């Protein structure tokens, strides 16, 4: 039975031959330049195919190691990789947008997940693949080579540089491809005038920090950023995106151009969340406010309903205030609508107080003006189809206190009725006169009570007419106000597509 031992597969870098050592002492005795791999397996059970694979891997490792050592033996990553110092390094920049993480309207910061692709040629890192076993490309740490100091100019996080030291892909032609991932927090002027039906035009300005356009030239890979791997946001949708290259001349050095590539993103907010959670509840509060005028005044619950609606709206606004951008640069559409709803409810309370006051007026405190009677009793009911309503009686015909024939047989002692008027001799009778005075007093009191009752009924009728009139007006104002706030912006967005 074969003995078990720790064998070492010795691979010669210079000659490429395979040496099998039975112990560590033999491995340590191998000459310089030999690499060995230890494996705790039986030395006499290694298949030939495995040994050939080990040999190939070792040779590949040998070639890459020798290539890296040769490339970086005299390499200086501080010096620009050009053959002539008057030449410019051409850097191709491509932006791949992966995710729109958040939009902070208050601090005006847009957070995005991107991959920034950079390509340039390093003349000091070229080789002939035939000299290194056919190796055409290798991957090396990005902090070991010269890199363009590309930064995000409109950075809002304090860290302008792209500091993710991922590896770069180096090809035998000297072409370097570096695509580091990054989380960009860029400044963006957020205009909340049309919130939540708003569009925002945000940008990312990329450029070298110290190299001007004479030593480093940056060119966009495409006039549009790459959105092939973009993850859709639940709040925003990309309407348009484009990149431009700019040549900028500063006052400090008017003869030296500085280059930048600016990518613009036109984003449109998806308003469904705000429609369901803010606009529709406010609209329902407005309709509920209008129903206050449909409630009969005699029920005594008009003010209770009005105050309840106001308190409910106040609590609702306190809950959703965090959803609205807290900025003083402009009043957003949704803020205007919430203000409209609040004014709407408060106006209904004020008018309800006036209606209740009108309903409980009496002739002893108020005399109805002629114009009020003309408008609210004679005109509006006919216009508003109130003709079926029972109107207050206004019969002011003076009736004679004496009938044509009065039966005074019990007083005069004569049978039958006799004609009587105020100047009749019969009325001179003291008993008859006292009776007539009493009847006259009672009639005047009844007449006064009737007039007071009629006047009170007129005030109640006026209050009822005002209630019905305001019910229609408030419902109409609720619909028109909602359309006035939002319709214009919705039509504009529809025209823009």
Automatic annotation (TrEMBL):
Q: What is this protein called?
A: Acetylcholine receptor subunit alpha
Give the membrane topology.
Answer: Multi-pass membrane protein
Membrane spanning stretches:
272-295, 307-325, 337-359, 469-491
Location(s), subcellular: Postsynaptic cell membrane
- Indicate the segments forming the Neurotransmitter-gated ion-channel transmembrane domain, all copies: 278-486
The yes or no answer to whether the keyword DNA-binding is present is no
Q: Which GO terms describe its cellular component?
A: postsynaptic membrane
Q: Which InterPro entries does this one have?
A: Neur_chan_lig-bd, Neur_chan_lig-bd_sf, Neur_channel, Neuro-gated_channel_TM_sf, Neuro_actylchol_rec, Neurotrans-gated_channel_TM, Neurotransmitter_ion_chnl_CS, Nicotinic_acetylcholine_rcpt
Q: Pfam families of this UniProt entry?
A: Neur_chan_LBD, Neur_chan_memb
Q: Provide the reaction this enzyme catalyses.
A: K(+)(in) = K(+)(out); Na(+)(in) = Na(+)(out)
Family, per entry = Belongs to the ligand-gated ion channel (TC 1.A.9) family. Acetylcholine receptor (TC 1.A.9.1) subfamily. Alpha-1/CHRNA1 sub-subfamily.
Q: Is Hydrolase found in the keyword set?
A: no
Domain of life per record? Eukaryota
- Which segments constitute the Neurotransmitter-gated ion-channel ligand-binding domain? 64-270
Keywords assigned by UniProt, alphabetized: Cell membrane, Disulfide bond, Glycoprotein, Ion channel, Ion transport, Ligand-gated ion channel, Membrane, Postsynaptic cell membrane, Receptor, Signal, Synapse, Transmembrane, Transmembrane helix, Transport
- Function summary: Upon acetylcholine binding, the AChR responds by an extensive change in conformation that affects all subunits and leads to opening of an ion-conducting channel across the plasma membrane.
Q: Which Gene3D superfamilies match?
A: Neurotransmitter-gated ion-channel ligand-binding domain, Neurotransmitter-gated ion-channel transmembrane domain
Q: Which GO terms describe its molecular function?
A: acetylcholine-gated monoatomic cation-selective channel activity; transmembrane signaling receptor activity
